[in-house]
Amino acid sequence: MLLLFFGIQLLVALLLIWWANAPVQTSAFMLWHRLSGGEVVQTWVDYDKIATPVKQAAIVSEDAKFSTHRGFDFASIQAAMRANEAEGAVSVGGSTISQQLAKNLFLTSHRSYIRKGEEALITVMMESLWQKQRILEVYLNVAEFGEGIYGIEAAAWHYFRRPAAKLNREQAALLIALLPNPKYYGKNLTAKRLRNKQRIILRRMNSARLP
Question: Where in this chain does the record put each Glycosyl transferase family domain (predicted)?
């Protein structure tokens, strides 16, 4: 069992080293989607081909301290732990962009403390091997934006018929607002909660500190 554990960590490390420069065109989430019979649409796009408002929106919505922490926002983690203890279940994650990416690339959406522990290990490796700009670039290329729609380029074409480089502030804020529940919101673009979150992101966007 110990050998299996270390073998898995070695495989993860090797993939992270390979993906430090190569386009990332698959993930655990994409794999599970394909295995369940679904079709995956994803097109890799480099960091400088993603509109600045998209990067700003992602940071203010998902991880305000992204550019300064080392993978973990301990204040958010403590708040999530208190919320989970109150509910008696793991319902709030407190995850940073780095942690979300670790989950998307290698794990599943199942919530448990064991999965969070593995997610933490992968996050430490990722933060050690990748620059912040690379983490954000990969995150935006593999995040799910709707049923079978992965990455900001595929999302930009699907929802707005334009490349990610041409997204404006309102469009960027709406796409990032999809992230907590992309399968539902992707089919309900006029949902009140979605539009409220879009407005909040727009108000905060200029405060984003990009890597």
Answer: 39-205
Element spanning 68, H or E: none
- Rounded distance, CA 202 to CA 181, Å? 19
What's the whole-model pTM score? 0.90
Q: Examine the pLDDT at 87 and tell me if it is beyond 60.
A: no
pLDDT digits (tens, 9 = 90+) for 131-169: 999 999 999 999 999 999 999 999 999 999 999 999 999
Token look-up 């620059």 returns: 131
Of the CA atoms within 13 Å of residue 107, those in its CB half-sphere come to: 21
Place of tokens 């008696």: 88
- The answer to whether 50 touches 172, Cβ cutoff 8 Å, is no
> For residues 98 and 119, is the Cβ–Cβ distance under 8 A?
no
User: In angstroms, rounded to a whole number, what is the distance separating the alpha carbons of residues 123 and 129?
Assistant: 10
